[in-house]
Recover the amino acids of this structure.
């Protein structure tokens, strides 16, 4: 049955009140024997779907109010979480770095400044800001010019030493190398737009006057474009960067316009090229070449840019399941906690925090979930989610999670097209996860009684199309759950079939799929 918009708003208010009050939520009069048996029967029926016959399914539903498990199957088994990994990375970042944390990017000079001449090097130093745009590098260059600098006799030095030199995560698939969602990680990088897909460039093609025109966002000569595409009756085009180069080869046919987000090979050199072009635009000439290295001791600051605070960055990070944000934050945590901007140091911070908050079964190889060796149990995720409710930053973090059925892209995120016009819409707040043969959904939902629940659904090793609708049916059933009444004809839990590939998060399928 379709709910009215008024009932959706009412449901959202109930959900918000249930979670905003945290562990001290007003008690609901509970009768554990009523409704739970029906819930168990219904979830068992949902999980009897033939697509899961050869698969592994782990599901836990827990009352955040009483701590009891309302449903559990394979609760303690280690399963592949995909982007559910980001629940741990994001929460650990809020705890370790703090919601006010910002990434500074600075311009310094070595040697001596006399009038408009710097006798020495100009240094661009980064700390990992994934939100740096071409316009931000332009603003830094403008600030250098405003400081009176017109000539730099030395080199332009790109200082990315805040992080180590390991660019790609453990176990990442080789065939993802040029995909923007698996871009190299660096302390100096740039994003093409306000989705903040750091380390990538948007390559656009369009049919104009019988030829294929190619443009990039931002406009840059850093990539070498080899355009072999032709105008045709339909668009069937491949835009792909060649391995270990910055050469992008375009083949196929183009009838209209098309865009592809392409990861660069060296984000540090890419960011430095944007800054060098901006310096030239603002009348600042750097005589020497562009190199990389650490800023020398005693280098003096000329300009500085700070990112948005982590409290704001959590929104594009979690709503759009941004892998690069996860990995940058992981290395940033390692830098803060151990003085080492490495995956090893950062992952220790995350796993220690996870274990301290109830995640006993946990194996982390990266911060985003791209690694297939990442592993968590549904029970660990549920315990972890429940434990976060008493954190001082919980409300901000909770608000950054995708919201089921909400069409606003930076509200609904990867759940914006799921569970629409159901009891779960504007109620379920959860993290999605998708890899080939893997899907997961874990988060929070308020029951029909106003009882706050946490849940984790992990489906692995299926060979069918995406079974995300199974996750959705369970989530909708939880939103309908009442301890004082059974619901349910499971066949009435109608949810939309997935509209995009189940192999990847919908937000990774550019142009925007969710």
């Amino acid at each position: 049955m379709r709910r009215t918009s008024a009932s959706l708003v009412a449901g959202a208010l109930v959900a918000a009140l249930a979670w905003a009050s945290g562990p001290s939520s007003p008690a609901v009069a509970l009768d554990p024997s009523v409704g739970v048996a029906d819930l168990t029967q219904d979830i068992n029926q949902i999980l009897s779907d033939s697509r899961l016959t050869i698969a592994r399914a782990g599901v836990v539903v827990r009352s955040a109010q009483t701590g009891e498990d309302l449903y559990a199957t394979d609760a303690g088994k280690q399963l592949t979480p995909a982007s559910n990994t980001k629940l741990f990375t994001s929460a650990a970042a809020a705890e370790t770095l703090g919601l006010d944390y910002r990434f500074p990017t600075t311009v310094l000079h070595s040697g001596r400044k006399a009038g408009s001449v710097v006798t020495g090097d100009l240094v661009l130093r980064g700390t990992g800001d994934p939100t740096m745009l071409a316009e931000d590098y332009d603003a830094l260059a403008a600030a250098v010019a405003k400081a009176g600098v017109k000539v730099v006799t030395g080199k332009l030095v790109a200082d990315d030493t805040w992080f180590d030199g390991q660019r790609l995560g453990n176990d990442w698939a080789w065939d993802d190398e040029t995909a923007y969602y698996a871009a190299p990680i660096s302390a100096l990088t740039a994003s093409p737009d306000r989705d903040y897909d750091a380390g990538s460039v948007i390559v656009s093609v369009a049919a104009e006057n019988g030829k294929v025109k190619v443009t990039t966002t931002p406009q840059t000569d850093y990539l070498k474009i080899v355009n072999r595409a032709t105008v045709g009756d339909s668009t069937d085009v491949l835009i792909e960067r060649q391995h270990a180069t910055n050469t992008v080869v375009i083949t196929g046919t183009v009838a209209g316009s098309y865009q592809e987000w392409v990861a660069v090979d060296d984000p540090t050199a890419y960011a430095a090229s944007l800054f060098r072009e901006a310096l030239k635009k603002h009348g600042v000439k750097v005589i020497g070449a562009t190199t990389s290295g650490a800023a020398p001791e005693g280098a003096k600051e000329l300009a500085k840019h700070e990112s948005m605070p982590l409290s704001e960055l959590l929104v594009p990070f979690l709503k759009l399941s941004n892998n690069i944000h996860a990995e940058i934050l992981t290395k940033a945590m390692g830098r803060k906690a151990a003085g080492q901007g490495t995956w090893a140091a950062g992952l220790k911070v995350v796993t220690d925090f996870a274990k301290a908050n109830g995640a006993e079964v946990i194996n982390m190889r990266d911060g985003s979930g791209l690694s297939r060796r990442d592993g968590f149990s549904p029970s660990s995720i549920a315990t972890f989610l429940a434990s976060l409710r008493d954190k001082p930053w919980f409300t901000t973090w909770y608000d950054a999670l995708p919201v089921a059925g909400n069409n606003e892209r930076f509200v609904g995120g990867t759940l914006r097209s799921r569970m629409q016009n159901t009891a779960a819409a504007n109620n379920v707040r959860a993290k999605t996860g998708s890899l080939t043969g893997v899907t997961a959904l874990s988060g929070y939902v308020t029951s029909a009684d106003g009882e706050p629940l946490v849940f984790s659904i992990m489906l692995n090793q299926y060979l069918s199309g995406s079974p995300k609708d199974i996750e959705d049916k369970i989530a909708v059933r939880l939103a309908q759950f009442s301890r004082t009444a059974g619901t349910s004809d499971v066949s009435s839990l109608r949810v939309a079939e997935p509209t995009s590939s189940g192999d990847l998060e919908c937000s990774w399928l550019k142009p925007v799929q969710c």
Remarks:
- Residues 200-263 form one domain.
- The chain has three domains: 5-99+311-508, 104-165+267-308, 200-263.
- The first strand starts at residue 56 and ends at 63.
